[in-house]
Each structure stands twice: as C-alpha cells, then as structure tokens.
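Recap quiz, item 2
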Amino acid sequence: MSIELVQVSKRFGKVLAVDKVSVEIEKGEFFTFLGPSGCGKTTTLRIIAGLEIPDEGRVIMDGADITYLPPHKRDTAMVFQNYALWPHMTVFENVAYGLKVRKYPKEEIRRKVKEVLELVRLEGLEDRYPTQLSGGQQQRVALARALVVEPKALLLDEPLSNLDAKLRIEMREELKRIQKSLNITAVYVTHDQEEAMVLSDRIAVMNRGRVVQIGSPEELYGRPKTLFVATFIGKYNILEGVVREVEGDTVSIESSGVRIRGVLPSSDVKPSVGEVVYAVFRPHGAYLKPSSDRDNEFFGKISLVSYLGEHLEVRVETKLGKMLIYLPPDFRLPLGESIKFYVPQHNVLVYPKKGEEVYSV
Amino acid sequence: MRFIERESGLKKVLRSFDSFIAINLALAVAFFTLFLILPVLSSAVEAFLDKGAISLRPIIEVLTNPEYVRLPPSLEVVRVEPVYGIVNGSVVPLGYIVSIGRYGPDFGKLVNSLFVSFTTAAIATVLGVIAAFVMSRYRFPGKSVFGVLLIVPLLATPFVNGYVIGRVFGRDGLINMFVREVLGFRNVTIELVGLPAVILVQSLSFFPIVYLNAYASMINLDPSLEEQAENLGSSGLRLFRTITFPLSLPGVAAGAALVFIFSLEDLGAPIGVKAAFGLGLHNKLLSYDVYDHFRKAYALELVSRSAYAVTFLMLLISSVGFILIRSYVSLRQYAMLSKGGRWAPRVRSVKGWRKVAVPLGLAIILAITSFPQIGTILMAFSDWAITGTAPRNFRIEYFLTIASDADIVRAIGNSVRYSLMALAVMVLVGGGLAYITSRRRVPGSGVLDLLATLPIAIPGIVIGVGYMTFFNTYFRGTILSPVDYPTNLLVFTYSARRIPFVVRPIYAGLQQVHVSLEEAAHNLGASRNRVYLTVILPLIIGNVVAGALTAFVYSMNEVSTSLLLGARDPERAPLTYWISDRIGGQTLGAVSAAAAACVLLMILQLASIAISNTILRQRVSFLGV
C-alpha cells in the first residue's frame, strides 16, 4: 500500500507537534521517520494509524482519503514501543486477537498463528503469558500480532528501543528480513540514526514538527541538505567563518585567520561574500597525507585517543578549537604530540548560519 | 494539489464521540443532572422562597434566630451540682454530679455544627497523622496486626456508637463504676453529654479517614526527599515537621476535609447520644434539626421554611470547604512530581524503650477509638443494653433477638434490595464515567471528573431534602414520588451518594492499563465496545468488583437519606432507619436488636474489605477527595 501525507499538521494545546508534513511512501518501501525526541515523528505515525486525527491536511492510502477513518477500519497494524501485549492473554490469544475480530474460522486462526509464530521464530511458546517471556520474545510477539492480520502497512514505533544492544542488532536484521520477504510497506519511527540507516530504503529527518530532508541513507549522510541533518546524523566537526569568495558550488571562508575551502550541499542556498557560515566535515573525511593541493590543512596537538576497533578516534586541539578525526588503527599516536592532517575540499560542507539549527545533545 | 480545509471545532468534538463514548457520556450526564444536580439545586431554591416570592427572609430568619446563633453563647462546659437526699428525715448532701457538656458549650445550632465539625476534624487529624507516620515509617513488634486493627474504628455502627458512649460516660456508666468501685470516690458522678459527647463519638469513628489518606500520601513520597534531608543532618521530629508532614499535607488535608463534611452531616451520633441521655445539646445541630423538621411534618407542604434555609446553609458550608480543599490539594501535588516506578517506602526499626512504647501507644489509641465497635459487640451478646453498669450474662440469645424482630428482618431485605439496585446503576454509570475521565478524549471531561467526586462533599441531608422537593414537584403521581413511594428514591440517593466509591477504583485501574494496550486492539480492527469488553474489562475487573463491594456496603450503611425518606414509609424503610428506631425504643431487647444489626453490618463490611484486599492485593484506601 502506498501512503501519502499531504500538509499534515497536529497541535497539542500550544505545541505544534506536526507542522505541514508531506511525504509519499511507496508500496513495499521501508520508510523511516528519524529525529530527536519531541520532533513529532511518533505523532506522525499515529496519524497514519488513525490514533490521532490531524488538525489540518490529508492522509491518503492507495489513492483514497482516509484522514478521518477510525483506526479499526484502516488496514494498518502497529507495533508499539512498549509492545502493548495484553497481560491477561497468552501468546496465542494475543496473536489471534486481530483474526478473531476479523471473524476468521477457528482452524484458519490456528494455522495462521502457527505460521506467523514460525516466521518470527517463536514456535512452541503459544501458551505462555507475556510476563513469562524475555524482552526479545515479547518484541517478536508484538511483531507477530501485527503481521498476522496481513496488514497493508506495518507501523513501528521505536520497536527496538527497549532491547539491549546486541539483541537490538539481531532484531534489526530479523525485521528487515521479514519486511522484505513479505514485501510489506513499513513505516518506522526511531531516534537512532544507525538503526534508521541500516533498515531504511528512505528516511525522513524531522525536527520541530517539520520534515527537514527526505532521502536514502547515502544521500542523508553524504549530502545533508541542512546543517541540522548534517549534525544530527553521524559525528562531525563544525567551524564558524566568514565567506571570502564564492565560485560555482565552492566557497572559500576564513575562520580565525585560517582559510578553509568547502562546497555547498545544494544549489538552493548561495551565501554572499562577508556572510557568516558554518563549515562542517566528518571525522573520517580527514587524512594524514594530502590528496591534492586544494586540500585544507590543519595543525594541532593530540589530546585524546580512543581505540574503537576498526579505527582510532583522535581528538586534536587546533587553533580553531577541538577537532575529531578517524585514523587507521595501526597508528601510534602519543598524547601531546603535534599532528598535521588534511581535509579534501569536497569533504567540507558549507551552510549559512542564519536560520539554521545545530543538533546538540 | 488537493484542497485542504480546516475542520471546525464542532466537527472535531463530534468526531470524538463514537457510540461507546456517546452512550456513556449521555448516561452520566443524565444521571447526575436528574439525581444530583437538579434535586440539590431545587432544595437550594426552596431556601429563597417565601410565600411564593424570592426572598432572603428564610435565611436571615435563621441567622438572627437565637436557636441557631445564640448570643451570648453558653460556655459553661463543666457544672458541678450537689445531689441531696433525705437521710433520717433531714436533707443532706449525698455527693456531686460533674456534668460535662450538659449546659454548654452552646452557640446555637448553626455555630454548634461548625464547632463540632472543626473540633472533630482537628482531633481526627492529630490521631490520624500520628498513626500514619508511625505506620509508614517505623517497623515495630505487631505492626501487621495494627495495620488491620486500624480500620476497626471505621466499621460502621450507626446510632449504637453514640449509645455506647452513653453507657460508658453516663451516670451509671463504666467510668463512674470505675470511679466509685476502684478509685473509691463514692460521692462523685461524672457524665459526658452534649456537644463533647458528639465530638468524642465522631472523632473516634472518623479518624481512620485521615489515617488512610495521610498514610497513602506518606508511602507515596519519594524516599530521596527525606534521605536528602537526613543527609543534611535532619532527623526525628524535625524531619517530620519540615519534610514529611508538609509533603503529605495534600492527603492530610483531604482526609480532614472529609471528616469535616462527614461530621457536619452526621445523624448517627446525635441520635445515638439522645437514645442514651434523652434530648439535649447534642441534638442542637443542623443535621438533627433538618431531620427533626421533616420527621415531624405529616405532609411535605407543612415543613417549615427554616428547614430549607438550614439545608442550604449546610450545602454552602460543605461546598465552600470542598472547593477550598480541592484547589489546595491540586496546588500541592508535590508528592507525585517525581513518581516513577513503585519504590519501597523508608521504614526503620524502632530501638530500645520505643520498642515497647510505640506498640503500647498505638494499642491505647486503638482501644479508645474502637470502643464503639467493641461496645456494640458487647451489647449484642450480653445484657449490657438492658441492665446493669457493666456487661454481664454473655449469651447468643441477645444477638438472636433480631431473627424474631419482624421489622428488622424485613428491613434487611429492603436494604439489600435497594443497595443491589443502586449497585447496578453505579457500575453502569460509574464504569463509563471512569473510562471517559481517565482517557480524557472528550471536552468537558474535567466537569465529569468533578461530578464523580462531588457527591462526597454534599451532605446526605441536603440530597434527601433535595429529592423530596424536586421529585415532589416534577414527579408527582409517578413511582418516583416521595409522597407515594419515598423508598423507591433510596435506590437513587444511594447510587448518587456512593458512586465515587465505584468510580475511584475503576479510574485507578484504568490508569494502570497503558493506553497502548487499547490502541493495539483498536489498531487490529476491534471497535471501541469490543476493546472495552475484551481488553479493558478483564484487566480492571478486580477494581470493578472491589469498588462495587465497597459501594454496596456503604449503601447498606447509609443513614441520612435512609432516615429522611424511610420515615415517610416505615414498612419499606431500610435497615438503618429501623436501627435508629430500635435504639430509641423502650421495649425490652430493642437496643440489643439494634446492636445485633450493627454487628451484621460490621461483618458485611469486614468481608468486603477482606475480599477487596485479596483481589487488589493491596490496602485499599476507599476515601479521598
């Protein structure tokens, strides 16, 4: 099922939780709303489920306007953050509930529940009560309960956030496998950018009730359109400076007397000379050897080295402030030593300061 | 681009009503309008009518009548009178009678009522807070036993409790026996009557209300708040005075306010004390005054105007108190601020001499406060009600007199019938009301929330008078006519007065059912009615049963409207009416029968508490604003 939100807004008292959100989700797509807490992503999902009615805008499913259709008449199934398993029903009863509502014959209910429990790898636990299950098992029951009614869309509200780190990665893969094997439209909500990157075909980054950017994980990471997206996804270094020269999509700025060259992430914005801007680059965009003569060169003292397995995370005190870079793990870097590193021009993105927001924890 | 319209506010409201919400909302609104608001309003309107015209005269007449406001008041609390006798033909002093409360204080009925209610609330608060603090913060020998015993004073023994006080503090009572026989003062007789007697009876019966509310507040306090103060060097009484007590004030205040209102509307103590001492200052109270006016009038039209004015004043006093306390409590909900999970309250063991002193002190408080209950049982199983100064001659026959008392037997049947019918109404209306208010999906649910607690604040007398005026005016000739079928109305006075007991536990249960459990079912295609039946009801059924039991018991115990309406048709009157009749009766065994009936009520109440506690697996505090 395709889902479309058209200029959807929702207010809670004085708070504008969702602000003119428009997205188009295609059939079979794994689509994620990603953003910090309070950004309106859960409300958006609840609007799709029909648990909230938008103040303005339309919800379209497969071309039909379902904005005011009550939740039990929509063909969506939701997996809740706290799983919402009914404590007075067994695993079987929980999973069978939606089928009973739809008046399936007893035999078919039995068969379908069995199938879906196999799909989520929970065979044999039919007679347990939710309290007798581990977190991961509860999670699977919640998923099975949603899947068994063969919904046209699966809605997931931070379903993995209550699991421990290892289980979370396991369930992540499981979820992706099931979604792809059923070719079901999935709408996912999370604040965990790594989870979003791994699972999604496309991601809508939200902030303050608005969708800031929609794109594939690669687009969002490599070409964040706004400063917020750049700073929300992944680690980054940020430098404030004044524009000295603009040439096509390359910009030359000056920060504390240092010249930095970078590129504009989109053609929408063009800063003028003298404007204050931010230059952003990711830790793995830095190298110890220059690749060309147009690379930016930084110099500083090593103040902290953390070994993270696949690379070293190195903190360098430069003239422009602290910077974070990733280096190959076989380097020996004593603290206090001076280091010189280079950041290629195309790895530095330049955003105007005015009206932009930096994500900070 | 599609055209996007903005929905009107009305449309939004209408959409939030599905059939489930609409039916329940309509039921609740209709119920409260017809059986609470309109009757109460019409009784208030009567207070401003004088010969068909709107006038302040009835109110002014009450306020300027020395019967109601006595100037100057009599403050002669204690009077010592010599008793003379004739010995060998000459008059000689035999001794003295020390009368407490017979000649004063007396401020007139209006001020007497305020005085009694304030004093009762103050005494009950002191006792209740001490008990709550000790029970919530200390571990000591026999604590669990005290936990159970502390609800004994709450067991209802309407009328008989006042009579027991008469048997203890009367001229031939236990106290005087002790003074004469044990202390040896053969020429001194002490008696406690009038307002002090009423205050005593009420303080003893009502202090557990403060205790339960204060206790609930104290165990819900975030322990780190107290730990922080201790960490900074505070302990003992200072810790209590500066941290624990201020933080539990919402609970304490709520309990105290309830005691104030319960005392204001109480008929049990004045009638019980009257049965032991005859008419006296203990009957110069507003509640008794209204009851007396209605009891004496053969037709409702003959009831004096001042009775309505007094009813209105009672309503005014209690609602001002209720509104003040409600806004105070909602302003001071600090205790709940940091409430996350359930934490273990801070409990410490007492050491040294306190190991003996704490349980002993509690035992003394308990022995005194549960004396009405103990006395009632003694009366039901001994000749104490009939003769003698101390209970003697213990036999089951006294108790069994109720079996041969046709009026009482019939009255039990009546009470059970009215209470069960009221229960059906309460569960039906209260269940939906609790659902709507706890989920807050409908505009105006704040008003419903208020309505759900309001009945606690309205004196039963006001409701009874309201029913008589309202239903006599608009339902004349129907089955709801207070002239032809006064006791039919009891089903509705019971349900209107006791519905908070049903709503509160159901509401509490719903608060514990996460809304996502409902949404999950809704989302899987279940309609709201189906969600209610298959998901919500099974999860809160324990709360429904507990609430229903409590409401049933408190309907069986109901006094004010049972007396007001029951007196108009004794054949169909409920049990409490007949207990009041028997306690004042002169025939042999009448008081025994009253006491025995109260024992039955206590057993019923104990059973309901035991069942509720088992179902909910926790102490239930039934009362609170």
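The CA atoms of residues 11 and 17 of chain B lie 10 Å apart.
The two ends of chain B are 54 Å apart (CA to CA).
End of item.
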